[in-house]
Amino acid sequence: MQTIRTFFRPLTILAILVALVTAFWAPTLFHNKVLVHGDSVLHGLSLWDYYAQNIGQLSNLLWSRNTYGGHPIFAEGQGAFAFPLNMVLVHMMTPIYANSFAHWVQMIVAGIAVYGLSRTLNLSVWTAGFAALATVFSSYWLQMQENMTVSMTVMCVPWFIWAAECWFQRPGWRAAILLGITAALVVFAGYPHHLQGAAVYVVVSLLPSLLERQSRTELITKFPILWKTGLLAIAVGIGLAAVQLLPLLELTQYSHRAAGAAPVFFEEPLDKYIRGFLFNLRAHELEQTNFIASIGSSLVVLVFTLAIFFKMPTRIKGHFVATLVLLNLAMGGTSPLTACLYNWHLIPGMHYFRVMIPYFIVAAVGVGIIAGFSIDRVSAALKGCNSNRIAQYFVSWRGKCVTAIFVSFWTFSLYRVGIPFPIGAKHIAFAGLGIVTVVMLTKARRTSWIPMVLFFVLALEVASMKLDEYVFVAPSALNKPETVSIIERDDPQRNYKVYSDSMSFLTMLGSPHQEHLADNIQSVLAHLVGLSNLRWNLPSMTGATALQLRERTFIDATLNQEIRGISGAPVGLRLIDLLGVKYIASDGPKETPGLHLKFQDPATNTWLFENTAAKPRFQVYTNYRIVKDSQEALEALQATTVPLLALQATHFMTPKANTAIAPSTPGTEPQMSFNLTKDTFTHYELSTTSTQPSWLFLADSNYPGWHAYIDGVETPVYTAQILGKAIAIPPGDHVVTLIFKSASFRLGLWLTAAILLAIAILSTMSIARSAVRNI
After folding, report:
1. Do 304 and 134 contact (CB within 8 A), yes or no?
2. Looking at the predicted structure, is the pLDDT value of residue 623 above 60?
3. Which of 755-769 are b and which e, b meaning 16 or more Cβ less than 10 Å from the residue's Cβ?
4. What does each C-alpha distance from 146 to 95, 284, 496, 511, 707 come to in angstroms?
5. Which helix (H) or strand (E) holds 621?
6. pLDDT tens by residue, 114-155
7. Please, are residues 213 and 105 in contact by the beta-carbon 8 Å criterion?
8. Mean pLDDT for the chain?
9. What is the pLDDT of residues 634-692, one digit of tens each?
10. Phi, psi for residue 581 in degrees, rounded to 5
11. Dihedral pair phi/psi, residue 251, rounded to 5°
12. What are the CA-CA distances from residue 412 to residues 271, 276, 324, 335, 402 (Å)?
């Protein structure tokens, strides 16, 4: 009986969490519907499709010619190809269902971690459940369900923080290994911003321990084992994540963010953040530009702010301070604290992120924990409360200051933004219901019920106000559009690229409750926006990930000018011609020379143009020029009136370019023929016949790991035409091999395997020792 009572409350909380999450995703789990809003199709579902198509071809996951004109897609991490859950689901389910099922699992697993973390911090069972619901159903967590990569890291963040808390309270090699494993999982999930934010949270949470004598003494006592096991955790985390981390670091070096990223949405009006804290506003209820999603519950924020009335244990104080810091970071330049930290480069890694809002993911965990702590303290304070004692507190200096802060915050917030109807009034009503409940239970001398009742009040709020965040549509909305069928028939060998010159994706960033959601997604797919081309294996010059190569970003303006017909380069010598951009999907007509209308669909407002001057993937040149960088290459290509190959020698070229090159022969027609005998994303084999020295050009980005061999002898691979690669071919008959072999991936794989083996050996030895002791 005692065992039943012990597990009844946790199991009840878990059952309610599972029920609410299941109700949220029920249309996708049971009714054959699909989430299409935001990034879900343009990014997440397309990556699931790509993963499923290439699960048996690892090399295609390392390099894809189907995005950004050639890209190390695994290195970016946003496909989460190495994330264990995704690796399992991609073998078991269709991409559409795997996407939905992963979201369902993510919310439940994250809620369990928040519950466990709360219990480790000595919160009661019901308040730990309150923290779990407050976190996983916070409005920003719900909003980010549209992004597969973000939602996977969301699942791992509370586990990382929980592992860090266990390590700090009871340092040892087991806790350190667990901390390293959770850190590695965040890396595998594919969104480094959240690992950096969680690490900042953990570090800041430890600072209060330095300011109090007793905790400082304990910290000094534990310091030797903390730093040793801390180094172990770092080593395990880096080692386990090496297979993903090393390629990611390599890509960062060659991406357009190598020197950092310019922040966007950095200084938004304060009112937007206040609305996001207090109300779960959606685009169909209030103009989306008027709020920024974050906590989205007046009840949760109310009990969170009550924490200032109570004396906090050191660890709770640490989480409170860390939460405030993360909330400030999420508000970007709107917060003077964040502006100072950002401008003075005081937080490592912060300048590599375009937006600060993702810090709300981490902050929501802290808000839930502190809200749970406040409920416990309210319950304890009101138990057998004495009105004189309460009066004495509020007339004391501390009571007056705290009350002034509390009243000022709520007066200022509600005065600034008002109460948007009807949704805002409902949120205030639930906060009021919480207050009334506490008062009634206090009068009935049932203060011990306060945590349980407030948990159910929050569950009721979630059930009545947060389960319709999205509208789901039938899978038929994802059917292959006619533009794709036309391109497939016209170019079955995938020798040419598509380019999406459309703003139709903006409809996916509006309300998920928009009237013509299914029609809009069909328009987006017809325009091949984002990564949607991956679903049908079409090479594209566009994409929807964070780390484009520098060269791809550099030519973006030029490509747009050429597509609009405002470039000075002649037809046939433009970049869109040289790089094989043959199909352009647009929102309207174009008068650009060389572009001819191939298909028009008024229903989706799609105009598909064919660039008749586009050249195929493989091209042959005899006229070339060595340039020092992309700018000089662009200038040379825009100035020439005859076919020209602009070559750059790169520092990652193997072997180095120190052999003699045949003289350039302008105006000479290339005398070389070739036959493509092997054609995969990462391995090409050609038989070539030439009567003169020539250059073989492939319109696919150059990158460390590309190697070329002529008759088995390695030859340098040059960067060519800014976003391609070329090799010198001598006269005669030859067998040419071009292959991608990622050294960073291979080294990372060995390191990851070594750490996994070491953990397995340590775990086996530990179990064996325990078994011997118990004999």
Report:
1. no
2. yes
3. beeebeeeeeeeeee
4. 15, 16, 31, 12, 38
5. strand 618-621
6. 999 999 999 999 999 999 999 999 999 999 999 999 999 999
7. no
8. 93
9. 999 999 999 999 999 999 998 887 656 788 888 888 889 999 999 999 999 999 999 99
10. -85, 100
11. -65, -40
12. 10, 15, 18, 16, 15
Q: Do 80 and 554 form a contact (C-beta atoms < 8 A)? A: no
**Nearest CA-CA partner of 681 in 740, 633, 638:** 740
**pLDDT tens digits along 482-523:** 999 999 999 999 999 999 999 998 888 777 877 788 889 999
Ramachandran sector of residue 491 (left: φ over 0; alpha: ψ -120 to 50; beta: rest): beta
What is the percentage of the chain residues whose pLDDT exceeds 70? 97
User: Model's pTM, two decimal places?
Assistant: 0.96
CA dist 291 and 102 (Å) reads: 28
CA-to-CA distance for 84 and 244, rounded, in angstroms? 12
Q: Taking 70 as the threshold, does the pLDDT of residue 240 lie above it?
A: yes
Query: Mean pLDDT over residues 587-597, rounded?
Result: 94
Q: Are strands 694-698 and 724-729 parallel, antiparallel or unpaired?
A: antiparallel
Q: What is the distance between the alpha carbons of residues 46 and 456, in angstroms, rounded to a whole number? A: 38
- Give dist(CA 707, CA 150) in Å, integer: 34
Which residues fall within 8 angstroms of residue 528, CB to CB, at 6 or more apart?
A: 483, 484, 498, 500, 538, 540, 542, 585
Tokens of 503: 């703003």
734 bridge partner residues: 688
User: Under a CB-based contact definition with an 8 Å cutoff, are residues 478 and 41 in contact?
Assistant: yes
Nearest to 264 by CA among 357, 146, 147, 194: 357
Inter-residue contact 354 to 264 (CB < 8 Å): yes
Max alpha carbon distance in the chain (Å)?
Answer: 103
* Pairing assessment for the beta strands 732-740 and 706-710 based on DSSP bridges: antiparallel
For the four alpha carbons of 577, 582, 584 and 590, in that order, the dihedral sign comes to: positive
DSSP 419-481: --TTHHHHHHHHHHHHHHHHHHHHHTT-GGGHHHHHHHHHHHHHHHHTTTS---B-GGGGSPP
Residue matched to tokens 């691979």: 717
Do β-strands 645-648 and 624-626 pair in parallel, antiparallel, or remain unpaired?
A: parallel
